[in-house]
Structure formats: structure tokens, C-alpha cells
Design a protein that fits this description.
Radius of gyration: 19 Å
Strand content: 25-35%
Order of helices and strands: EHHEEEHEEEHEHHHEHEHEEH
CATH architecture of one domain: 3-Layer(aba) Sandwich
Shape: globular
Low-confidence stretches: 6-27
CATH superfamily of one domain: P-loop containing nucleotide triphosphate hydrolases
Number of strands: 12
Bound molecules: adenosine-5'-diphosphate, magnesium ion
């Protein structure tokens, strides 16, 4: 039996409007009755291009509880980055609403910069300034906020320790491995104590062993920071390992196909991945992705 709440791909023929609405609210609701960290309602995105319109996202409804970790998975082109960029404030939705902690972040195409200032972003490329040391990169958001030098340096050193970069505070990005550069990018994203952390395939360019270690560390960082996390990945095992819920998107236009709760106990470890429960969740999600082919 599948643990996921699946939305019908062609609901008009198969279910009544009431059933559809009920399925949608069950799927979008966070598992706990806690406060909502992020709310996405009716988000659509259409990119105008010279060859016509690309309908990248359609009818996205999703609530993420405060402190919850949600993974977004789906094939290339299903709209994961588009959704994350909308959640980051970098891209305006064509329609719909995004709220953070009950405050409108995107509403009628207008952005509230103060809301997005509380978000931390991490992308596949670390995008560190090569001429700044690790601490100067990590402390940059604090500098932009006017924090005095000694104070922001102390905070950056603390953050380096949190992400496992102790001893590399004065190194330059070129002196770091790919995994270490991503750690620095995560530390920088955490610098302003973000209420929401948005990550787009942050470990996609790393080798498998480094990626496993980063996943363990990200779990720890999430537990300590208490941030609400939306994490985009191609990897179903990675999505399941990290998440409280896995959201599966399907392409053309990008829609939420299913939301799967992951009730594996925390903290999770390498041993978690060998449990039958983990295997069943991964297999279930793979089957769902394959159904698209
Ligand atoms: N700036 C853009 N202009 C036009 N089309 C775009 C743009 N960005 C993304 N798209 C299209 O939107 C769809 C979703 O893309 P994207 O969000 O990058 O997907 P994913 O991150 O899941 O691979 C794809 O069809 C892609 O070609
Ligand atoms: Mg992408």
C-alpha cells in the first residue's frame, strides 16, 4: 500500500470536484497542527518566450509547517527551480499567493522584501566571492546589514564550526573542495538566522560519499536551526533521507502529483537507508516517477 496521497492526473474524468478538493487539502496540509512556515496557494508560472508561452507551474498548493523539512523531487524541467525561485523572491509568480509565517511574500505579483530578507538560499553552485576568505564570504550578509566587524567575524567563525569548516576560516574558496565550498554557502545562508532555508540541488555537483556526509550534516543543521526547509533534489533516496514530506512534481505544466510523509525516526543515519521502511518509500516514489514515462 502506498503511503502517499496521490492526485489524479485527469481528475475531471475520474473524481468529483468535492473529492478533488478534499484530496488537495489533505495533500497540502502539513503533518502536524503547528504553525505554517510557508504557504503556497494557487501558484502558476508562465514564461513568455519567442516561441510562445511555457507553462512551467500550474495550480501549486502547498503548506510547509514551521520547522518542517520538505523535499521537492521530479524530472528535469518539471518546475522545481521555478518554484524555488518564486519562494526565494527572485521570480514573480504569474498568479497565486506565497505567505511566510502568515505574512504575504508574493501577493498579486508584488513582493514584500522584508519577508524575503529572512530567507536563506543555497544553490548548486556555491557562488562565493573568490577574493574573500571563508569568514568574509560567510559574514557578507551581516556586513550588508551593518553588523560591526568584530561581531560579524565572531558569528562567522561560529557558523564555520556549525558546518564543519573550523580551521578553514581564513582560506580562500579556491583552496577548498567542492563539499567545503557548499558548506561555506550553507554557513552564509544561515548567517542571518533564516526562518526559511531554500536549497536547489545544493549537493548535486558533489561525489556520492561527500553527498552522504553533507546530508547527515544538513540534518543536524536543520535540527539545530529549526528553520523551515524546502530542498530540491533529483535523488529520491536523498529526498527521503532528509524530509518530513516528499513532494513529487510532474512536468508540462509542473503540478504536484503526490505528497509522501516520511515517518522514519530521527536522527537518521546510514543505517536508516538499509531499513525496509526506507526502501519501500524510495521504491514507491520511483514507481510514481516511472508512471510518467
Ligand atoms: N527563464 C525561462 N524562460 C523560459 N522558460 C523557462 C525559463 N526557466 C525555465 N523555463 C522552462 O520552465 C520549465 C521548468 O523549468 P525548471 O523550473 O528549471 O525545472 P527543473 O528545475 O525542475 O528542472 C521547463 O520547461 C523550462 O524549460
Ligand atoms: Mg532545476
Amino acid at each position: 500500500m502506498s503511503t502517499s496521497t496521490t492526485r489524479s492526473p485527469a481528475p475531471e474524468q475520474e473524481t468529483s470536484m468535492t473529492q478533488r478538493t478534499a484530496a488537495r487539502s489533505a495533500a497540502q496540509a502539513p503533518p502536524t497542527g503547528g504553525a505554517v512556515g510557508l504557504r503556497v496557494s494557487g501558484v502558476d508560472k508562465v514564461y513568455p518566450t519567442r516561441r510562445g508561452e511555457v507553462h512551467a507551474l500550474s495550480g501549486i498548493d502547498l503548506d510547509v509547517a514551521r520547522g518542517e523539512f520538505v523535499s521537492l523531487v521530479g524530472r528535469s524541467g518539471c518546475g522545481k527551480t521555478t518554484l524555488l525561485r518564486i519562494l526565494s523572491g527572485l521570480l514573480a509568480p504569474s498568479a497565486g499567493l506565497v505567505e511566510a509565517g502568515g505574512r504575504p511574500a508574493w501577493s498579486a505579483g508584488r513582493r514584500d522584501d522584508a519577508v524575503f530578507a529572512e530567507f536563506g538560499l543555497v544553490f548548486q553552485e556555491a557562488n562565493l566571492f573568490p577574493w574573500f576568505t571563508v569568514t568574509d564570504n560567510v559574514a557578507l550578509p551581516l556586513k550588508l546589514r551593518g553588523m560591526p566587524r568584530a561581531e560579524r567575524r565572531a558569528r562567522a567563525v561560529e557558523l564555520c564550526a556549525t558546518v564543519g569548516l573550523a580551521g578553514f576560516e581564513d582560506s580562500y574558496p579556491r583552496e577548498l573542495s567542492g563539499g567545503m565550498r557548499q558548506r561555506a554557502a550553507i554557513a552564509r545562508a544561515l548567517a542571518c538566522d533564516p526562518s526559511v532555508l531554500l536549497m536547489d540541488e545544493p549537493f548535486g555537483a558533489l561525489d556520492a560519499l561527500t553527498r552522504d556526509r553533507m546530508n547527515l550534516e544538513l540534518q543536524q543543521i536543520h535540527a539545530v536551526s529549526g528553520a523551515t526547509v524546502v530542498f530540491v533534489t533529483h535523488s529520491i533516496p536523498e529526498a527521503v533521507f532528509l524530509a518530513d514530506r516528499v513532494v513529487l512534481l510532474t512536468p508540462r505544466p509542473g503540478r504536484i502529483r503526490s505528497v509522501t510523509p516520511v515517518d522514519l525516526p530521527r536522527p537518521r543515519s546510514a543505517a536508516t537507508e538499509t531499513t525496509p521502511e526506507f526502501g519501500a518509500l524510495v521504491a514507491g516514489l520511483r514507481t510514481e516517477l516511472d508512471r510518467e514515462d
